[in-house]
Specification:
By secondary structure, the protein is α+β, with helices and mostly antiparallel strands. It has helices at residues 8-13, 68-83, 88-110, 113-126, 138-147, 180-193, 195-213, 230-233, 252-260, 265-277, 281-285, 317-324, 348-358, 365-375, 383-390, 397-402, 407-424, and strands at residues 23-26, 33-37, 43-51, 54-62, 292-293, 298-301, 311-314, 427-431, 438-443. Helix 6 (180-193) runs antiparallel to helix 7 (195-213), helix 9 packs across helix 13 (348-358) and helix 10 (265-277) crosses helix 14.
Amino acid sequence: MKKLNFTAERVASFQAEVGKAQTIHWDAKTPGLGLRVTPAGARSYIYESRLFGKTVRVTIGDARAWELGKARTEAARLKTLIDDGKDPREVRAERKVAHEARKAEARRQSATVGDAWADYLGYLKSAISPKTKLPRSARYLADHIALAAPGGEPLKRGKGKTVRGPLAPLMPLKLSDLTAKTVAAWLADEAQERPSNAAHAYRLVKAFIRWCGGQDEYAGTIPTDSYDSPKVTAVLPKSKAKEGDSLQREQLAVWFGAVRNIGNPVISAYLQSLLLTGARREEMAALRWVDVDFQWRSLSIADKVEQDTGRVIPLTPYLACLLAALPRRNGWVFSSPAAADGKIAEPRIAHNQALAAAGLPHVTLHGLRRSFGTLAEWCEVPVGVVAQIQGHKPSAIAEKHYRRRPLDLLRMWHVKIEAWLLEQARIEFEVEDDAPGLRVVANA
């Protein structure tokens, strides 16, 4: 095509040839400068030359944004690069990579703990746990969210506002500010009021920092000794169970008497169920009527560890009596008409009130689970039986690979445990032969 000296008017008047996807008009004044025109009317300046015997074509930009004089200047610059043996496309790609690297480094240096924590939660939700070889449980994820929550939100039940999590003070900090001095100061403050929570939060921070070290976008931003410096380990509190957080044999009669007198029969049955099965509080709260088999006397528990299969445990006589007497308002065994999801939400208040009325030391709901495992030793029950009922992972090779106890065998031992507990509580009951339920005879 014939070359013409470009002018603003000519550039605006150039048209695409009929039947072609694009037409290139060449400038006679600036070698290699062209104007590409499409049938739709789009106009872009280009530059074309040869490098090492091959054609190199580079788009300069839209003719509406580039004045003719600037386009000629850019064409001259591109010619200089090619004369030096450099491909303008490679130079542009290198500049883009360098630009993205600078942006990434800026993000790295300005990223806060909260920013990285959000990415960390996304990783926990999607990745398989290397310990259990399973996805993380909803409870595990909720724990991470709650410990980093700023607090101040209205409580879902009752008056007041939520309390901030122990990790909340770290969230606004830059990752580069997460030094050993900062972590030690934070840990010392948290340990003053909540030592066990602080120790638990520290373990989460430790795992988080290690994860950051393995991510390209965060690696190197956190000082290497931020969690294992002597400054930190010196103030690290020991996490331990609360003193007396387990019922003693001689306390059973008083505890059962106080709990059975709770005005709400659902809460009363729920608390007794925790002690009689050793289940976790969330597992028992999530029990549905379809999980209860009164005919074959079993409970299907949504296990925290075996999430896919759950576990099946015996439905012992007294526990069956408790459950059979509960109202069937919805699908939940421990239902609550006041709760948003229809099931029991916060039984701790009633339990604490019962403990106070009975003059017993404080026992958490998890302490009832601990009590089951501890008190079962009075019945000389095999440790593996108790672990299987409670849903603990086998700890010994024999338990892990060679013990598969059927439900009947578990029931034999579980009934003995329940009978012993009720004997200590001075509760008598009998099974009626002509009815599936149970009848409480006396409570001395």
